[in-house]
Amino acid sequence: MLAGLLLILLPLILGYLVPVNDERVLALINRGVNLSVYVILGLMGISLTGLENLGEQLTRMGGQALLLFAIITPINLAALGWLSRRSRLRAGTSPVVKDAPTSKLAAMAGSLALAGVVALGVVAGIVLGSLGWTSVAALSEQLAEWVLYGLLALIGCQLRNSGMSLRQILLNRHGLAIAVTVAGSSLVAGLLAAPLLDLRWNEGLAMAAGFGWYSLSGILIGDQLGPVLGGAAFFNDLARELLAFLLIPLVIHRAAPLAIGYGGATSMDFTLPVIQQHGGIACVPIAVVSGFILSLLSPPLILFLLSL
Fold it and tell me: Which CA distances in Å does 88 have to 157, 253, 257, 266?
């Protein structure tokens, strides 16, 4: 198992060692990450069709995602609420960020599109299977693994060239405190959820260690534990982001750490415009640091836990 962990971590580490100074190359890397995520999620949907009793397995996946979400969310909110009461961080006001989503539905569109890709993959797998392509599910799993290696290398490169130095991260005590609170409370919830999901303790922790990075957590879990649990991890973390879009405008002026932190890893990208719109420019570096730490922590932590 440790050999498998090193095999998957290697492209992430190699990608992190590559400095990129050309903006055009960085743009290509970003597009490559987005394309790889869509490809792998579509392949994950196809691989689901290789399961016996597909309807029953999809129902099980939905139930597991709902249970995991129902356990993690109140524990996250309680921990972040506690931090908010003890923190001096307060949201301010600022002009609307340029090109920010104009509605919650628009902000959620990218998240919902990824869920749609999984659904399209399931449909494609069913159609291909009916045409006699009986091995399409197994082939999709093999192809997804190779695309995953490329994706991890690109993500490592993204993290290296994100513009965040270690000094900036460690000196931002608000962002660091939020990230530690999200990570710690999520892992406690994963440990509590493990027996309810009929999982080993380390698998329960891994399911909770996505910290909202649904596109990667579902892929890593699915590669190690199968498409059903991968789908459950994906939809659990997707639900976190969708709820974050609704929570941020409602609570950011009363509990800024809660609003920034609940989005988890997405606070540095997808939910950042909403945080800036409603919390002001002062919240932006805190959200970026918090999201960056969780993004940096999530992949190796998931892989390590699954190797135990």
Answer: 35, 12, 10, 23
pTM over 0.90: no
Mean pLDDT score of the chain, rounded to an integer? Answer: 84
The answer to whether residues 231 and 61 touch, using CB atoms and an 8 Å cutoff, is yes
Q: Which residue has the tokens 């055009």?
A: 24
Tens digit of each residue's pLDDT (9 = 90 or more) over 102-113: 455 665 666 677
